[in-house]
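C-alpha cells please, single chain.
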Amino acid sequence: MPLTDMRNAETIDALVGLFTECGFLSLSVQDMARLSKRSKSTLYGVAASKDGIIEAVVREFFRRATENVEREVAGEGPRERLGSYLSAIAAQLAHVDRRFFDDLGAFGPARRIYLANIRSASERVQQLALAALPEHSRVDPRFVGVVAGLVIESIHRGEVEAATGLTAAEGYAALSELLSAGISHAAHTHTESDRT
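Here you go.
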C-alpha cells in the first residue's frame, strides 16, 4: 500500500473513532484535526472539503461494520445466521454514541449512505430469513426483511430508544431475539403440520 493510502487509511480510522464517540456535524475541520491528532492538510488528503471528509468516514464506517458482521455469520447454519447477523450488528454499534446517528440523519450525504446501508441490511435479512424458513412456510421472508428495515431505521432515528430506553445495540439485540423466535416458531409449526 502506498504511503499516502496508508496515511489516509490511518486518518479515516482515527476519524471513525472520533465520529462514533461524539458525532461529526458540530466539528470543524480544525476540531477534527486537533481531536484526531492530525494536521488539517492530512485531513484534506482524505477529501477536499469537510463534507467530503465526513462522507468518506461514514462510508468507511459502514463498509467495516458490514465486513465485520458478515465475517461473524460466515460459519453459522441457516437458522442461526439471522439471529447472529443482527447480534453482530448490535456488537458493531455497542460503543457508537447517539450523536453519530443524529448526525447521520441530519446530513444529506451521510443520510444517503446510511439509508443505502439500511436497504442492504433489509435485503440481507430477507435472504437470511428465506434460507432459515422451511419451504412453503406461511412466513414471508420479504415481510421479515421489510419489518427489520423499518425497525432498524427506527432504532437509528432514536425512536426505539425514546419509546423503550433501549440503546441502538440493545434494540438490535431485541430485534435479533424477536426474529429468531419467529423463525424458530415458524420452523417448529411447519414441522408439526408435516407430521399431521
